[in-house]
Design a protein that fits this description.
This protein is 41% helix and 24% strand. The chain is an alpha/beta fold. Helix 1 packs parallel to helix 5 and helix 3 packs across helix 5.
Length: 146
């Protein structure tokens, strides 16, 4: 499985968040990568996000209005996608103004990590850990406990 975090704003090299992302990328059995673009206007950001999605990839848009799932529930959705032939998932993180409706319309899943507002760079670190966690849930690894 290939997982790509497509995000607005650039994470500083060697920042604590970049180190966390790097750690979970190393641990992952999946190919995990991050594609970034500097902040700009919402239309340009939306164009970057949607044009970065490879053909055939499932799209998860992170948005406060999305569904709030347990890690095991998200893992089950991804397992179902894999059974259906999906080999790539893109996770979209918008800029400070969030996502345009056109980006949300492109989503296969609109996901919320709760009502809290998190810094965008920290969200990438949290998301990279969750991608790793999902992988361990699906493989039966004891990393995740309920």
């Amino acid at each position: 499985m290939k997982a790509t975090i497509i995000a607005i704003g650039k994470c500083k090299k060697n920042s604590p968040e970049a180190q966390i992302i790097e750690e979970y990328t190393k641990r992952s059995q999946w190919q995990l990568s991050v594609k970034e673009k500097d902040n700009s206007d919402p239309t340009s950001e939306a164009e970057f996000l949607t044009s970065s999605i490879p053909s055939g990839a499932k799209v998860v848009v992170l948005d406060e209005r999305g569904v709030n799932l347990k890690s095991t529930e998200l893992a089950q959705i991804i397992a179902n996608w894999q059974l259906g032939g999906t080999s790539e998932i893109c996770f979209l993180i918008g800029g400070a103004d969030g996502h345009l409706q056109s980006t949300r319309d492109r989503a296969d899943l609109i996901l919320s990590f709760g009502k809290l507002t998190l810094p965008h760079m920290l969200m990438r670190a949290v998301l990279s850990e969750q991608i790793y966690r999902i992988q361990t849930i699906l493989s039966g690894h004891p990393y995740h406990r309920e």
